[in-house]
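User: Need the bound-state model for magnesium ion:
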Amino acid sequence: MAKIFCVANQKGGVGKTTTTVNLAASLAAQKQRVLVIDLDPQGNASMGSGIDKMELNQTVYHVLIGMADIGSVRVKSETGGYDVLPANRELAGAEVELVEIDRREERLKDALEPVLTEYDFVLIDCPPALSLLTLNGLCAANGVIVPMQCEYFALEGLSDLVNTIKQVHANLNPELTIIGLLRVMFDPRTTLQQQVSEQLMAHFGDKVFSTIIPRNVRLAEAPSYGMPGVTFDKSSRGAQAYMQFGAEMIERIKTM
Ligand code: ATP
Ligand code: MG
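Assistant: Bound-state model below.
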């Protein structure tokens, strides 16, 4: 049975999509069966997995509004070695249409049910908002992975996310927990980043993943080739860090 993780942070540009596709590729390289769900109308996780978002007839949008099931919409990422439930701009409409639909926060959870035995991991790339789309991700998930940059305002934003997760936990999904905070785009030469990193560990303890993802240009270049960094340049420091993060996640789920 798959374990389902949301990669979420309402702050934009913090490395959610980079983490989703590279963790997926890392897990796939370590013999795990992985489904990536692109829950962002920007479609970045789809494009970064080598799937052209403009060419799609059906997307996660059709799944959410009940016009298709996951089995007929998912596609294979040849460059990543995992399956993708892709997205494009059309998904922005779901935000409005779902309001009228029954069990509107649980559409994704319900749709996932039939395919869970086919995967070890389902990774959901959330948009940069605490929206109805993100709520669908949080309701479907066993846990949340929070990528964050170690800068001053990152800590401030974290409390909104933690509060939302608490509310979803109380009202919609009693299983939901923060699996961990992932330090990304890390530059160890910056004193402030080191200080914030230490504060994080003091405050969140073992909720901070031991893997640290460095700032690495190869990770940023990979999406323009439709590839996760892990496949684009295996030997880069960024790829190696995400390989290590995959191993850490495989260990983590053994205790769940
Ligand atoms: P959004 O909120 O818009 O969905 P996001 O949180 O998904 O953004 P990404 O798209 O993953 O963030 O990353 C933002 C930018 O930072 C991208 O250009 C990405 O290539 C770059 N980036 C992410 N991680 C790293 C890293 N470790 N080193 C260097 N660049 C990175
Ligand atoms: Mg993104």
